[in-house]
Prior knowledge:
With 436 residues, this protein is α/β, with parallel strands linked by helices.
Amino acid sequence: MENPVEFVQWLRSVAPYIHAFRGKTFVVAFPGELVSAGALPVLAHDLSLLHALGIKVVVVYGSRPQVAEQLALRNVEGRFHNGIRVTDTAAMECAKEAAGELRLDIEAAFSQGLPNTPMSNAAIRVISGNFVTARPLGVIDGVDLELTGITRKVDAETIHSILAAGGVILLSPLGFSPTGEAFNLTMEDVAVSAAVALHADKLIFITETEMLRDLAGTEIRELSSHQAEAVLHANFLSPESAFYLRHCMKACNNGVERSHIVPFAMDGSAMLELFTHDGVGTMISHENLESLRPATIEDVGGIIKLIEPLEADGTLVKRGRELIEREINYFSVIEHDGVIFGCAALYPFPEDKMAEMACLTVNPEVQAQGDGERILKHMENRARASGITKLFVLTTRTAHWFIKRGFVPASVDALPKDRQRMYNYQRKSQVLVKTL
């Protein structure tokens, strides 16, 4: 080890993620292209490490190139309709053979255990079976898709019991009907259905696609499901990337907190996405933009009603209506049924790449529901989008809350010069800073 100090610092830096992820359920899905590229052994190393860290892992694999290979070997031409494979009897036999071979390859990869390798001392038990009930897609636009199906139900109860016992679940792109038929499914459909049924904390697609980029070529690191919908509507993504993004949106809109699209071309991309702040892929989260949004002039009355009690007891600095009206563009609010029950303001200092978050308030009647956390994350995202690298707050009563969320105490000298000149030494507010 060339630099033990750096190693220790790195290990400490990932500790918060390790603590946060322990006991969580992650659905990790990858296409057959990953296996064809020879990346399966390394992925097995990384997923076994997640398992060792106490994360409950469900693996879903695809088989498109392997099915195409089997069809070619039998001189059978694959048929598609609107990008969906028409699975006749011959194609179904190819799908079964491809899925079976891949299953054995994946189980073999998780069975590694040579000394001086990441799998040394690992004892991973991979469990697969008839956990997915499916039904036929039927006839679309006059075309019978035959044995092509869609997930109908995932046996979440059984899967949870296996995960609780320390097993890793392996789901294939095949499903079964109560009549005993097998159906050819898409890996993406199975992964989303499993993540939703299991109330998974994360759905991670490790894909053959490149990093998502906007029209200007800038990497897309994070999207709300609402923003993802706008990206799809703009129609600039490749068909493959758009396909993954649609499934991520579906997962988030049905209760999965976070979904990720991570290219497998980068070694260790899944680990980098999960255990580094910026990650190496695109994260999609569900955020109800109707309730968490930038403030408008119509919100001034609601903001005043919300902050007046805290101004009266000295928790917040008093602001008049005129000041709030002038600064309304700095505010964001949480609204429900037309009632403002949370707000915060972001004051940028662009030259210093810093911003002050002020007036973070949540109605006492709905506190302890995580809305303060939601507002904080929203303001952090606003700051990052503006090129801000450090966020600071001045507080007299709530320092502990901010420290638990990554802020660290600092001196007045750490503030931008313009903010130092406005600091009220009589109020003696604590200065807390967070690096974004």
